[in-house]
Amino acid sequence: MSGHPTPIPMASQSAGPLKGTAVIPGDKSVSHRSLILGALSVGETKISGLLLGQDVLDTARAMAAFGARVIDHGEGNWSVNGVGVGGFSEPEDIIDCGNAGTGVRLIMGAMSTSPINATFTGDASLRSRPMGRITDPLELFGAKSYGRSKGFLPLTMVGARDAHGINYTSPHPSAQIKSAILLAGLNSLGETTLIEPEKTRDHSERMLRGFGANIETVETKNGFEITLEGRPELIAQNIAVPCDPSSAAFPVCAALIVEGSEIFLPNIGLNPTRSGLFTTLVEMGADIVFENNRLEGGEPVADLRVRASSLDGIEVPSDRAPSMIDEYPILSVVAAFASGKTIMRGIKELRVKECDRIDAMARGLEAMGVKIEEGEDYLIVHGQNGEVEGGGIAQTHLDHRIAMSFLCMGLASKKSVKVDDGHAIATSFPIFTNLMSDLGAHITS
Ligand code: S3P
After folding, report:
1. pTM recorded for the entire structure
2. What residue numbers bound the domain in which 403 lies?
3. Annotated catalytic residue: which of 326, 356, 420, 438?
4. Is pLDDT at 155 greater than 90 in this prediction?
5. Which residue of 70, 149, 267, 408 shows the fewest CB atoms closer than 10 Å?
6. For a pocket test of ligand 1, which of 37, 176, 181, 352 has the largest count of ligand atoms closer than 8 A to its C-beta?
């Protein structure tokens, strides 16, 4: 992924209602963590439903490079024979995390308190993303990092010997920062405490507890205080990865805006730290029924039934942003079809995702004839009451979610929608085009 792969131009156009069942691939966040925690455990972790996206495959390769035995048994079933906390060996070559911010940041955290060195790189998107937000706290553990100026990848991390736990208040609402620190805290003496002012996705905390770590979260006046006891023995687990709500968002939103659609999505992860988009869509008037609500592997899960709906723009509460941070691109598309304005504030983290997502959505929406207003930390989309012109080309900047969002737009706009490059879709949702086509969508490359 890290060279300059040939762009794959793609296009979509309306072709009648979406109908049928969409089986969504495994959750990307849980998939990365399953491999990393499996690698840090004693014994054999068995994973079913692992996402076979390039981001996760890069993490699997990285875990093997650090000494774990990672085996692909086919059809999303994997096993990881771990090396135990503190057992990582030094990789012989550069760790290439491709497009994956989660992969590189969590792995840096996990190795930063072992006395080994590792050099990390990634594709053009990952090489332009800030790493100081991770390396600054990891240096408090005693690790050292040597990156390009401004700390960009490629970057060499020199792991700390005999690290001690730290106390850190995260300046950004970021589960990647939180998780990197907790993973570093595993091989540190004493406790590591992390305060996050706003609650972000909590898969790391849930999974660390599941693997046997002593970790607790308390709500204080400063935010959520998470304390992990260092040097636990993590014990291998069996993990069934839930279906990714962030991937489900694309067919769900497409079905809402394509007239006459009705689709069913079984087994969608609905962890409350991830489900903000669904809350927002229901507030806009979306017909989404959550059936068979249950807990699977400690994560809330439900089956979703979605019918095309006429939607009203709303103001999305800014404190909901962490629970739907990856969903603003597709929400912006839905907002274009709604009536009235949809106001999204408190979203400046979108500027440091796989690309600057506020800018990418703003430019793409304008190219499709949609009026927007944009600021450093907000985007306002003026709804077109179901009548979006389309007909333009959206630039995707190696960002899977920008590509999929605009391809969903083309399924309901008057003219077809093109994206300059869809190859990044394979990082998180490799079966996107086939799955959408099976529902009746017209997407070509
Ligand atoms: C993720 C955290 C989020 C999210 C990303 C996955 C994770 O990033 O955008 O897709 O699995 O921890 P930030 O931590 O930068 O908000």
Report:
1. 0.97
2. 10-26+242-444
3. 326
4. yes
5. 149
6. 176
